[in-house]
Amino acid sequence: MRVTMIGAGYVGLVSGACFSEFGVHVTCVDTDAGKIARLNAGEIPIFEPGLNRLVASNRESGRLNFTTDLAPAVAGADAVFIAVGTPSRRGDGHADLSYVYAAAEEIARALDGYTVIVTKSTVPVGTGDEVEEIIRRVRPDAEFDVVSNPEFLREGSAIDDFMRPDRVVIGTLSERAQEVMRALYRPLYLTETPILFTARQTAELTKYAANSFLAVKITFINEIADLCEKVGANVQDVARGIGLDGRIGSKFLHAGPGYGGSCFPKDTLALVRTAEQFGSPVHIVETVVGINDARKKAMAAKVIEACGGSVEAKTIAVLGLTFKPNTDDMRDAPSLDIVPALQAAGAVVRAFDPEGMDEAKKLLDGVEWCDDSYQTMEGADAVIIITEWNQFRLLDLKRIKSLLKEPVMVDLRNIYNSGEMAAAGFRYYSIGRPHIEEN
Prior knowledge:
Elements: E1 2-6, H1 10-21, E2 25-29, H2 33-40, H3 51-61, E3 64-67, H4 70-74, E4 79-82, H5 98-110, E5 115-119, H6 127-138, E6 144-148, H7 158-163, E7 168-171, H8 175-184, H9 186-190, E8 195-198, H10 200-231, H11 235-243, H12 264-277, H13 283-306, E9 315-319, H14 335-344, E10 348-352, H15 357-363, E11 368-369, H16 373-377, E12 382-385, H17 397-403, E13 408-411, H18 418-423, E14 427-429
């Protein structure tokens, strides 16, 4: 089979590389000539564990190619995936579909024979109908079907998510399109992956519903964490206690500074706007959006309190800037709220992230950038852990204490044990757990 992936960003590049690993011939198309040049030179423009090896091996085999020329890539393809960005539209929070619609027009002009057009981008309900109308308007003679096939890739584990997914959702009622999609996902049939065929609108809504539900779980446990701090309970034990209930499950019950990234912030907001548009508001999700925004801003106040009520002229060491580990993605990361708030309160911020430094430098001003964890803490008045990278989990506590002016750690990811930190002589503050004074 031959597949064309329009968009060589996170979703398009990962999906294209994984399809080629299945034995499909894939061409990734992108308007960014610099990105395509880097990919053809063997450079990966994003950080995702294992992606460089996957791209290199399939480029070598000839199954994976990169180009800026859309027309020849679309002609003769069995399926063309639209995997372009759908950021939140400025001013109203609706998904910006301009890139999707522009791709649909270009695809229409290049169609040659029956083709399945697949929206892989996260799009609101009804987008597939509009894509179909655009293609029919541009090419009334074309033979095609428009299918919704939302992605459920987690940054940091995207390849495993694609190769061994919980499910694949395919939105189309066309039997001809279903045959093409079954053939494309045949390797997953062999591993008995649930593949759900639905109406196109159902598939589009499923993506938003899934991400919004996970955002609700995160926000719920964060609010429970705040209550735990007030009553002297331990949120990690609460999470275990409810997570062992099969109806609830343990995933996404980890208290922290709030969700970020490329999906949850924009998808929850887009669902709220879509629901408003159709006169069926989703009040739970509306509330979640507001709580999460406020939570990220409130984390700086937690740090200031841990520093005695003021960070004026104090140096704060920040470990981790990306919204989660194993990615260089800074989109809507909690650090983007926390760092400027600390600076506004008079703090000098020194920071280190294993993979996100280049992206962070574009978004954060006035930060002293460091080469490693320990350099960040030299002479600092306190250290904050914002992102739970593995290399932050086993830091040398004696060395940290010798480097800091004051033994203050604010752990926004709960990766250390409160009792052990107190025994090591730290004033240790975490999320939703009782504060234990240092010995």
